[in-house]
Automatic annotation (TrEMBL):
InterPro entries from the UniProt entry: Kinase-like_dom_sf (IPR011009), Plant_Ser_Thr_Prot_Kinase (IPR050823), Prot_kinase_dom (IPR000719), Ser-Thr/Tyr_kinase_cat_dom (IPR001245), Ser/Thr_kinase_AS (IPR008271)
GO cellular component, one term: plasma membrane
Descriptive protein name: non-specific serine/threonine protein kinase
PANTHER family with a match to the protein in the record: OS01G0588500 PROTEIN-RELATED
Naturally occurring in which organism (per UniProt): Nicotiana tabacum (Common tobacco)
CDD domains associated with the record: STKc_IRAK
Comp. bias regions, Basic residues: 432-443
Amino acid sequence: MAFKITLKAIIPSCFNVKIDVLPFEDKNNIVRVSKNSNNCGHSRLALSDISDPESSLSISDLSSNAIIGSNLHIFTHSELKVMTSNFSSSNFLGEGGFGPVHKGFIDDKIKPGLKAQPVAVKLLDLEGSQGHLEWLTEVVLLGQLRHPNLVKLIGYCWEDEQRLLVYEYMARGNLENQLFRRCSSSLPWLTRMKIAVDAAKGLAFLHGEEKPVIYRDFKASNILLDSDYTAKLSDFGLAKDGPEGSDTHVTTRVMGTYGYAAPEYMMTGYLTTKSDVYSFGVVLLELLTGRQAIDKKRPSREQNLVEWAKPFLKDSHKHDRIMDSRLEGQYSTQGAKKVAALAYQCLSQKPKSRPTMTNVVKILEPVLDLKDIPIGPFVYVVPSFDCKSSGLNNGCLEKKRGEEKEEENKVKISDQNDKEISAGEKRENGCRQRRLGHMKQKNQLKSATVHSDTYLLGL
């Protein structure tokens, strides 16, 4: 028998509650409150199930601050229209399973007390793969949890059928786009490792909570990057409470992304924090290889990244066969060995053999300090197709073309002067022309390259 109940009726006003997660598959209980401390200021509210919005959390519960405290701001739909220029296509950032995301701008005129800043506004697609419960999970979870490597939720909008979320704006988008998009400079080795460390810290924080939070959808597209490439985890709609007491796992519907989900979870629905560790191993492989977890454009044996790359992880002498060629050797050999060995551990078929995320952080952080990266600037080879259609303005290429043209003019001047000098001087100038021709050939090769640091500044 289902009981209609609101959280207001069961939460004392003194509660400074902390929400672990809002799972929603099971239908045995509507709301469970567990008190882990006699001090109400440290009591912990656990929402183990919200299967029906009408029987649990309402908009008045959220706005009362009894659930999520005072961390979040409440926006009206009209305010969000102003912030995003009526959700203009020019402000469109992308779209996922939740719905479209638009860039906006907020200042104290719209919300007194909020500093002027760009934001990302995510609108729930009512016909999409996610719904109100996932939206609610995100609000309650991020309303309570704060960490440098979790994306910051600024506020939300709940009006009639409208469900929107307002986040801090992450200038460099997500890792998937940065790592795999065409006509873009390749991420340098140390940047990749910094992203790996940041993401690992975010997962370690979730797993280290008093009641662990299982992310359940860790993947490259859910890792957002700010202007300094600081990585932050996003999209917590599928997050789930970890097992309690003597339980070794929780059983759920199989949800997530193929290619990243742990095999035991896919087969049985048994979910643990080690399921996230497996997914982290897949992302480590993507950072090493520059390949996507699933790529149907590759030969059949190489379409599944884990199946293709895992045999090479065992032998340190074969690591170079899977390293991203776009790195052009500009990476720490010792670091690559450590990361490959770690990825192999994370991808173990036996969950108990996988490391904890705390240990993953301890292994990865020293990789950032290794000094055996080959000396020399990282060079990116620009694809032969025109990048202008992708919105990239490569001023560096124009500079190189100008240098090439200047060298050609020098050769023409030299040819003209040759007609006016003696035969002996012509022979001498012939040698000079051959040298100039060699220089021209080198410049033609250089004209197709751009130093990555300069290129990034042009984005």
